[in-house]
């Protein structure tokens, strides 16, 4: 690459530098970074306040050579590097390259962007073998503190902020990041396409499907129906049939966000073991009377759960019972359903290993929440300070988990 003569002279002049120990610093003010140690050089990226950089060399003209978050070398004025952030720092507002707190589409209280493509893979760039550690979905917000100007360069979008977390940092290409996509405009763009434009129809249909799960309930259903219709047009009959369950799920849970009461308000959770229902407020004595083999583990969990010290764990073949002597509390934290050996009753509906996913959703769908793209077939029901999760596999209930909020 050829540089103007003044940049070459600048570089030669400042090439008298102090050796550094490759220390990591915070960026205390939004700043561009350059390919040479001069403001007249080419800007190659921009930092938001709070980003991290590793200083390699410090020049006599007030500039530093750094490694930006993705490992590329660049140059920045040394005054923007600091060991810590302070409210008294003199800094400029972060630029419009980022989505900032207070903006209409902002979802974070710090600079961020959105994933603008479907099923974007994020790699742990500094971990062994650089594994794909997470799949991000269209319109999912991600924290961004350094943004290269080259769309093919990597951007840190997750995995912690401290230099010691480097092996957990997650990266994807800048071209997959941007402002939040508008659902209605994307649907209109899809509908305006010729059916012969198969590549773009596929791309937009996949984005709309993933966007749907982050929209309101009516848009959820519209997006799923559009994606399902696309699969039928494309001849993907198996996926077309599978997506019928997505539609059923959305219709069954339309009212979930509108419920003012919880499933636990209608009636407490009840447990039935080997055909016998335990008392509403069962005790350790009731557990000892269960006619099933078990192991007793003293101080089984090894720690208090949200202030509830578990002094004994009763481990049965397919479920556990925790007992707290200090709190006089006995509860079931986990069930691995085995046909009808143990059942739970929630809001008057009994669930065991023979309960179907559809029957569960028809009865309790108004109470459930879920993250369908990340954990399909896992449903959460929240109470006042506690919650449970029910997992289904091949259409049947397989796992119950219960915990207290900390």
What does the largest sheet look like?
7 strands, antiparallel
- Give the strand order, joined by hyphens, for the main sheet: 19-22-23-24-29-28-27
> How much helical structure, as a percent, in the residues?
10-25%
| Low-confidence sequence ranges | 5-20
**Beta fraction:** 25-35%
What does this 3D model show about the protein?
- This protein is an alpha+beta fold and 406 residues long.
- It folds into four domains: 5-82, Roll (SH3 type barrels); 112-178; 183-252; 263-404, no CATH class.
- 21% of the residues lie in helices and 32% in strands.
- The chain has helices at 5-13, 183-192, 198-212, 217-233, 237-252, 263-266, 284-288, 357-364; strands at 17-19, 24-27, 31-34, 43-47, 52-59, 63-67, 73-77, 81-82, 112-115, 120-123, 132-136, 141-143, 146-148, 154-158, 170-173, 177-178, 270-273, 276-277, 294-298, 304-305, 308-309, 312-316, 319-324, 329-336, 342-346, 349-351, 378-382, 386-393, 396-404.
- A seven-stranded antiparallel beta sheet has the order 19-22-23-24-29-28-27, with no helix packed on it.
- Strand 25 and strand 26 (349-351) form a beta hairpin.
- The longest helix is centred in the middle third of the chain and has 17 residues, at 217-233.
- The radius of gyration is 28 Å and the shape is globular.
């Amino acid at each position: 690459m050829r540089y103007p003569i003044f940049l070459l002279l600048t570089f030669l002049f400042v090439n008298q530098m102090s050796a550094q120990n490759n220390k990591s610093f915070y960026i205390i003010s939004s700043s561009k970074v350059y390919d040479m140690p001069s403001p007249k050089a080419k800007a190659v990226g921009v930092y938001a306040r709070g980003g991290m950089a590793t200083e390699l060399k410090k020049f006599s003209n007030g500039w530093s050579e750094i490694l930006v978050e993705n490992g590329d070398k660049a140059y920045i004025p040394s005054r923007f590097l600091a060991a810590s952030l302070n409210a008294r720092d003199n800094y400029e507002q972060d630029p419009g390259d980022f989505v900032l707190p207070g903006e209409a589409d902002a979802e974070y209280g710090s600079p961020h962007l959105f994933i603008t493509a479907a099923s974007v893979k994020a790699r742990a760039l500094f971990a062994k073998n650089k594994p794909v550690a997470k799949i991000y979905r269209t319109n999912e917000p991600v924290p961004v503190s350094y943004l290269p100007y080259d769309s093919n360069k990597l951007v840190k979008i997750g995995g912690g902020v401290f230099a010691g977390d480097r092996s957990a940092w997650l990266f994807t290409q800048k071209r997959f990041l941007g402002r939040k996509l508008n659902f209605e405009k994307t649907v209109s763009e899809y509908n305006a396409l010729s059916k012969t434009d198969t590549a773009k129809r596929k791309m937009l249909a996949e984005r709309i499907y993933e966007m749907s799960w982050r929209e309101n309930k009516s848009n959820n259903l519209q997006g799923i129906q559009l994606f399902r219709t696309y699969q039928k047009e494309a001849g993907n009959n198996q996926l077309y049939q599978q997506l019928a369950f997505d539609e059923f799920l959305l219709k069954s849970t339309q009212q979930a966000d509108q419920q003012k009461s919880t499933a636990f308000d209608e009636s407490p959770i009840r447990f039935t073991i080997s055909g016998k229902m335990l008392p509403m407020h069962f005790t350790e004595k009731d557990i000892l009377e269960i006619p099933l083999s078990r192991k007793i583990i003293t101080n089984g969990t090894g720690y208090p759960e949200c202030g509830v010290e578990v002094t004994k764990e009763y481990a049965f073949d397919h479920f556990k019972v925790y007992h707290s002597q200090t709190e006089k509390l006995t509860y079931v934290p986990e069930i691995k359903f085995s046909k009808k050996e143990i059942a739970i009753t929630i809001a008057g509906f009994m669930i065991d290993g023979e309960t179907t996913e559809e029957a569960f959703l028809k009865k309790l769908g108004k109470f459930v929440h879920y993250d369908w793209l990340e954990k399909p077939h896992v449903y959460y029901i929240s109470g006042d300070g506690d919650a449970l999760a029910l997992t289904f596999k091949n259409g049947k209930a397989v796992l119950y988990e219960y915990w207290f909020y900390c």
